[in-house]
Amino acid sequence: MNWNHVRIVAGTDLRRLFKSKDYWIPLVIMAGLFFVVIPLLVLTMLGRLEQTGFVAQVTDIVGRLPAQVTDVARGDTPTARAGYIAAVFLLAPIAIIVPVTISAAVGSNVIVGERERGTGEFLAHSPITMRELYVGKLLASLVPGFLATIVGFSAYSLVVNLTVGASIGTWFFPTAGWLVLILWVIPPFIAAALAVILRISARVRSAAAAQQASSLVTLPVIILSYGVSATVVVAPGRTAFFIGAVAWIVAIALAARGASKMKRERLLGVASET
Amino acid sequence: MEQAIHFGSVSKAFGSVHAVEALDFDAPAGAVTVLLGPNGAGKTTTVRLTTGALVADRGDIEVLGLHPKVDGDEVRSRVGIVPPKPAFYDQLTGWENLRFAARIFGADEHAALDAAERFVIADALGQEVGGYSTGMRTRLALARAVIHDPEVLLLDEPTAGLDPESARNVLELIREMAGRGRTIVLCTHLLHEAEGIADHIVLMNKGHAQASGAPADLANRYLADPVVVFDAEDRTRLHDLVERNGVLSVVENGSVHATLEDLDRLPDLVAELVRDGVRLTRVEPIEPTLEELYFEMQRTHREGAE
After folding, report:
1. Helix H segments across A54-175?
2. Region B3-214: CATH code
3. How far apart are CA B292 and CA B205, in angstroms?
4. In chain B, helix, strand, coil percent, each to 5?
5. Which of A27, A74, A114, B272 is the most exposed, fewest CB within 10 Å of its CB?
6. A271 contacts in B (CB within 8 Å)?
7. What's the CA gap between A262 and A200, in Å, rounded?
8. B contacts of A273 (beta carbons < 8 Å)
9. CA distance A258 to A266
């Protein structure tokens, strides 16, 4: 495999993406909503419950949560502990939707888009191998999702520390569990979803069809990664490492399979012109 | 002559549509081969099969001694192509598109710039391609096609949508590259485009090669007896031309148009006239146009099929 070709394909796709404001601005707005606006509203609201007399209700909610969660929750007051639990266990997993959705939105279009625009014709007649093209496209789709994860969680960490951290008395986010999740577990989940989405993108006839079909893949991946994230955040040790390792193996196997199934003629509008 | 491209009984179907059916033709190395045929004749599929972008269902294809199905990457690195509707990444500048192609083909940036200058698009390289006109896109596509100095250049309807000046530039490129020993394959349905530059013609229709060969050979094969225009200081001395050996008929139309049995008879005929004291002012064989040849070939094959 010529990695220079992979780098060129991925780099060019990313450059195109960053130049297409109408494409990435909605994605940035979505990331801002999930990572900043919603957490800020929820955590600020929780912080004010003490003043509105719902302390008893919050204490009741916290008391009903599993011991694994309540044992690690920090904070001297029920409101502070509720804020900690919301920030670490309840709210943050929702943000997994963002990187998966962003990567899926990019990935579903990358191959069928070449065909629709006609740029696939050049690639089909070029010396680039289909394996190089597939891996380049996979990286180009993976990077925006992963970048959103890093930037988004940095913003989320700031929001959490400024709101809940103040009531606990220290900045505590990201926790060890979340670092493992972001750096080790989430990327292979995105990669695995993309490996399937790119295969769909290579097979369907239009970008619209690719987006429809990719939503069938992203939904189960989001549900699965949501469940996994809860486990990893609570137990960031061996279990988290094992889950991440399995996810990587699955992602690599799916990507290898996808690369081997990629056909050059799929880049052409075959049968449309003779 | 060595063949740069060889198609032997090649077939390719898309479902029930037979785009190319038992196609046989050779493109001589260092020559301009014109694939001539109406829309839907199978020209674009032929080009795609040549680079291995499509794989034939049956038959044998050789390009520069290589088999595209097996050595596709090697073939594609030595072939340049201008597709019928050149497409680019519209959000990127002309330069970014050209540099992308250069890197994929392993060419350096100087080659990209040289190619852009050659097709008079260098000044527009800083603009996003989305704002390019059809002519600019075609010029950029031409630059992209020659960036790696290919041994074979495939041009699929390269002048479609171009203004006359740009179209002429394309034809000049073809002549120039052929002059440098490159093999050119030009797909077109425009007869005037092929006129004068075709060393070899492949007449395609419904996925077949109906006829192929050098224009002169095809003219001999398909066109009626040759016509020569004669004129003399005293035109009345040409009235007995029809009675001379090898002359089939004469029509006087401003000058004298004589239909001969064979063009090889012309030197003897001229010698006879001179010997008889006719002071000739014009002896000009009428070259058949490609258009005449094309329609005659089509007519012959249509009648053959009936």
Report:
1. 55-64, 67-72, 78-85, 97-117, 120-124, 130-168
2. 3.40.50.300
3. 17
4. 40, 30, 30
5. B272
6. 14-15, 17, 19
7. 10
8. 44-45, 84
9. 13
The partner residue sitting opposite B105, judged by closest CB among A15, A124, A126, is A126
Domain range enclosing A179: 3-265
Confirm whether A14 is domain-assigned: yes
Say if domain B224-285 classifies as CATH 3.30.70.980: yes
| A72 in a structural domain | yes
Chain A contact present for B70, CB below 8 A: no
A150-170 burial, b at 16+ Cβ within 10 Å, e below that, comes to eebbebbbbbbbebbbebbee
Inter-chain residue contact B91 with A267, CB threshold 8 Å: no
Alpha carbons A178 and A93: distance in angstroms, whole number: 10
ipTM here:
0.82
Interface of B with A in 162-221 (CB under 8 A): 207
**Partner-chain contact B81 A125, CB within 8 Å:** yes
pLDDT class for A70, splitting at 50, 70, 90? Answer: low
Can you give the residue ranges of every domain in chain B?
3-214, 224-285
pLDDT digits (tens, 9 = 90+) for B252-278: 877 888 888 888 888 999 999 999 999
Question: For residue A157, is it within any domain?
Answer: yes
A215 has a pLDDT exceeding 90? no
